[in-house]
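Re-running Integrase zinc-binding domain-containing protein to confirm reproducibility after the cluster update. Everything else is unchanged from the original entry.
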Amino acid sequence: MKLKDDALEGKKQGFKVDDDGTSRFGTRLCVPSDEGSKNEIMAKAHCTPYSIHQGGTKMYRYPRESFWWNDMKRETAKYVST
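Result of re-run:
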């Protein structure tokens, strides 16, 4: 919520809130600090038939195109290592 409030007040550069309340960083969708949502996104990036169980850096590229959250790179590397 703080990010959304800061974006609405113009305190966060690059962040915006759409008319429907969706938070974005540039064109990427901001994912809330919900482990379930993040894990679902990372699982989809890691376990699709076309991904061939990529390493952390390659796996990070797919969700980075559409999604954003704090510490995304670190959390992706941790997901791949477990």
